[in-house]
Structures are given as structure tokens and as C-alpha cells.
Amino acid sequence: MIKLLSLLLVAVTFTACQAKIEPKKKSTQNPHSEYKGNVSLLVKKGTPVTDGIPNFTWYNEAGKEISFSEFSKGKPVLINFWATWCGPCVRETPDLVELYNDLKTQGAIFIGISVDLGDDAMNLVTEFTDTYKVPYQVVIDFEGELQQAIGDLRGYPTTFYIDKNGKIVKKLLGMQSKKKFAEEFKSIL
Q1: What does DSSP assign to residue 171?
Q2: Does the residue 123 lie in any domain?
Q3: In angstroms, rounded to a whole number, what is the distance separating the alpha carbons of residues 56 and 79?
Q4: What is the CATH classification number for the domain harbouring 115?
Q5: pTM for the whole structure
Q6: What is the pLDDT of residues 93-139, one digit of tens each?
Q7: Which domain holds residue 92?
Q8: Which residue, 34, 68, 132, 181, could crosslink 41 as a Cys pair with Cβ 3.0–4.6 Å?
Q9: What are residue 110's DSSP bridge partners?
Q10: 94: preceding bond cis by omega (within 30 degrees)
Q11: Is 142 contained in some domain?
């Protein structure tokens, strides 16, 4: 029994990072002008909802403010909360990129929500997305507002599957394989 509990603890340790709990501080970054390519700071967190994702906003690659509801209307969405400092998040990124490239022609939308904090978050995340060639939208929740609006994020990575009606239909905690991501996504395509 002790061996089983020890193995379970080791498995959890290597598949998810614990959420960083830091006191909220106001960033000096200006969210109204910060975007680089497919990476943007969160502009507005949106209103919390019971069975869906808040209607948060960000800037797209052209610098236009866009909302989650506008961007995802009638489409299946995978939202992945992650961080550049989270080992399991880093390890699953190539699988997410590959799956997105496989599914984008079927209308699939992926959004990465970086939980990196601090004044250097934009540079860290942009460098990361360049290194891993992340093609989908990435929004930096640099003050944790979106995480608070969603609630119940126990660690990273955390992945939400949102159906075409905007409802959360599945939540996965911890690192996943491309196969697992694909299996879960089939149900909302």
C-alpha cells in the first residue's frame, strides 16, 4: 500500500506543476498595447460564468481587440493553462502544436493561457512560442485575473474543452499526450 501511494505521488509530481500562489500585484505592463504576433496580454478578464469560460479579451496579431465569444463562436475550443517554468507544460507543448496543425482545417481553435507573472512575462512567453513554433493564440494572464474568474485551477497544465455552444465539457489536469488530447477533442468536433 505504501509503495502504491509513493508511486501515485511520483506520478502526480511529474505530470503537473502546482499553481503558484503569489500576492496579486499590479503589473507595470500596459495591457492595452502589449502584443507580439500571436501573443497578447489579457485585456479584460470578462464576467465569470457557471458552465463556460468568461468572455475575456486580448489583441490579435493585427492589434484589434477581440473577445473569446467572438473568436470562438460556433467552434470547438481547447484552452490550455500553462507556464514557461512548468516542466510538464513544456513537455506537452509539441503535442499541442502538432494536434492543432492536424485539426485547424476542421475548425478547431486552441488558445494557450500563460500564467507567467511579472514584467518580463511578454518576453518569456514570446521567446517560448518562437522556440516551440506555437501557431495558435496565446494570452498572458499576467495578473491571474482570468484564473480567478474561472476558479478551481489546482495546477498546470490544466486543459479545458469547450463545445460549439461555449460550455466547458471536459477539464484535464496535468500533462497529456497528443493521443489523449485528440481523443477528448473528438467529442466536440
Answers
A1: E
A2: yes
A3: 12
A4: 3.40.30.10
A5: 0.84
A6: 999 999 999 999 999 999 999 999 988 899 999 999 999 999 999 99
A7: 28-186
A8: 34
A9: 78
A10: no
A11: yes
